[in-house]
Design brief:
This protein has about 220 residues and is α+β, with helices and mostly antiparallel strands. The protein contains three helices and 13 strands. The N and C termini lie far apart (about 60 Å).
Length: about 220
């Protein structure tokens, strides 16, 4: 039997009904021998999971669980705060979970939303095995291990010399949701990526590196001066 690491009530945004928010009950599972890492959620408008009531209430809850939705965390591309999204209530924060084929928008009280994001990131973006070292060992002429070091390639600029890039946004469901189109400046800081307005360079979106899953998936071009 799978053991969950977190559960609770969050709001989920339904695109089909004009971006309306609806309460759902969420259960987060890590990967185990019994199942994959996943986020399960189902309608909880009837009183939430585990609510009291007679046999009718129990039957209704079972029906809702049968209609549950599942997000495979192995398919997550990013889990990020949705800073520009209007939340269902005050003192709430929204965040989006982007997978290979869909972007899901959730909301909760600010501290609760932060806890969910951090826990999901810990499960979805775990290091993939290995010793964690960037060095490669091979045998030297004496048969002993010889460590290869990465040499500096002078063809490329360092991050300190060039950390701003001229980028164009592709039209996707996620870009439309965030209201992004056209070209922007993308700046690489020590721990975050910052998307800036193309004219006045005002910060529009900020992505912490630890919340990003894929690097170099799409082409990024830097304008010539």
């Amino acid at each position: 039997m799978d053991v969950h690491v977190k559960e609770g009530q969050l709001y989920v945004q339904h695109q089909k009904f004009g971006k309306k928010w609806k309460k759902n009950w969420f259960v987060l599972y890590p990967a185990s021998q019994n199942g994959i890492a996943r986020l399960e959620f189902f309608d909880s408008s009837g009183g939430g999971a585990g609510g009291g009531g007679g046999s009718g209430s129990v039957s209704s809850e079972k029906t809702r669980k049968l209609d549950k939705k599942i997000i495979r965390l192995s398919e997550c591309i990013s889990i990020l705060p949705a800073l520009t999204e209007a939340c269902p209530k005050e003192n709430m924060a929204a965040f989006c979970v982007e997978t290979n084929d869909k972007t899901h928008m959730f909301a909760a009280e600010q501290n609760t939303a932060k806890e969910w994001m951090e826990t999901m990131c810990d499960i979805a973006f775990q290091p993939q095995g290995g010793s964690g070292s960037g060095n490669i060992n091979i045998a030297n002429s004496n048969g002993g291990p010889q460590e290869l070091q990465m040499s500096e390639n002078l063809i490329y600029y360092s991050r300190e010399e060039a950390n701003e890039f001229w980028v164009s946004v592709q039209r996707t469901e996620a870009s439309e949701r965030c209201g992004l189109s056209g070209s922007y400046w993308l700046k690489a800081e020590n721990d975050v990526l910052i998307l800036k307005d193309s004219k006045i360079k005002k910060n529009i979106l900020v992505w912490p590196y630890k919340l990003l899953r894929r690097y170099g998936r799409d082409r990024v071009s830097r304008g010539r001066r």
